[in-house]
Amino acid sequence: MVSWSGLGRSFGINLFRNKSNTFKGQNVNFSTSKIFNGDHGHKVMALQPSRWQWHKFKDMFHYYTMIGLIPVTAIIFYTNVFIGPAQLEPIPKDYTPKYWEYHRHPITRFIARYIHTDPQQEYEKFMHFIDEEHQKMKLRALEKEIIKKMSERQDYQAYYYRPMVNKYLRINKQVGDEIYNRLGDDVKD
């Protein structure tokens, strides 16, 4: 596929050339369409932008389109011609149909079975999400009630409370006890 457009470009130039001006005489080709300049005059090459990127894009586009298009077209053709749509029949009493069996077209059934999730599973996931949000709502209401009670009763410990570091309290108490033991109770200023 990649080389087709390149071949078309090279053949396209040769296909539209005027071949009527050539004739053959004694196994030698003569052409009257060529102009022979013996003066070797000034030849000018016209500068033009490269078309390489455009041709590369066309080649890759055709290649990848055909890679995807040919198999998909073959699968759709085979499915529609040889399998066809499902026929509606009564359901036996001891059989529970699967969720993908409710679709008529085989490709839709395939997508429903292997790509999409079960509608019951989606429903249960949504119910779980609603339950989680309900639990969060109850926790937020409880937290508000706790903060309200703490402000009513003027409790000292709350979220803004920072517990003291007891290390320095113990050092101060120990120093105080040592001074008390050395000097006793009757210390005069």
What does this structure look like?
The protein is mostly helical. The chain is built from 5 helices and 2 strands. A two-stranded antiparallel sheet has the order 1-2. Strand 1 and strand 2 form a beta hairpin. About 3% of the residues have low confidence.
Key phrases:
mainly alpha, 189 residues
Task: Please provide a brief summary of the model.
This protein has 189 residues and is mainly alpha-helical. 57% of the residues lie in helices and 4% in strands. The chain has five helices and two strands, in the order αββαααα.
Number of helices: 5
Q: What is the molecular shape?
A: flat
Number of E-state strands: 2
C-alpha end-to-end distance: 107 Å
Q: Work out the strand percent.
A: under 5%
Q: The biggest beta sheet, please?
A: 2 strands, antiparallel
Major β-sheet strand ordering: 1-2
Which sequence of SSEs, written as H and E, runs from N to C?
A: HEEHHHH
Helix content: 55-70%
